[in-house]
């Protein structure tokens, strides 16, 4: 079953964030991941729940073959070596979504 990551971010340091994303895109493919959507315009359609007032600047949707692939990717030495760039480059929130069929 496919598993999806939804990543939202607010950029703090554009250079470090760009460096992170460049390296990250190469790493995810090693674990069967691919980017479905990234970097487009974000439009809020309703007021939603005001739990977090932080408005993301960027959103990315990644697809992996399974949750195991996601966890291996994030635990990998390659990813660990660039995680400090992510932390320095942006505030992020990442959620994992299991790909169940909608009926």
TrEMBL record:
Transmembrane segments: none
Gene3D superfamilies from the UniProt entry: 3.30.70.100
DUF1330 domain location: 3-100
Pfam families: DUF1330 (PF07045)
InterPro entries: Dimeric_a/b-barrel, DUF1330
PANTHER family named in the record: BLR0684 PROTEIN, PTHR41521
Protein name, entry field: DUF1330 domain-containing protein
Organism listed in the record: uncultured Desulfobacterium sp
């Amino acid at each position: 079953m496919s598993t999806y990551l939804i990543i939202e971010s607010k950029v703090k340091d554009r250079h470090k964030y760009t460096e992170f994303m460049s390296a990250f895109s190469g790493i995810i493919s090693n674990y069967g991941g691919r980017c479905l959507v990234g970097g487009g315009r974000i439009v809020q359609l309703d007021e939603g729940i005001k739990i977090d007032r932080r408005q993301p600047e960027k959103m990315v949707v990644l697809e992996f073959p399974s949750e195991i692939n996601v966890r291996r990717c994030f635990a990998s030495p390659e990813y660990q070596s660039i995680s400090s760039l992510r932390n320095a480059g942006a505030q992020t929130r990442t959620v994992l979504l299991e790909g169940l069929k909608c009926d």
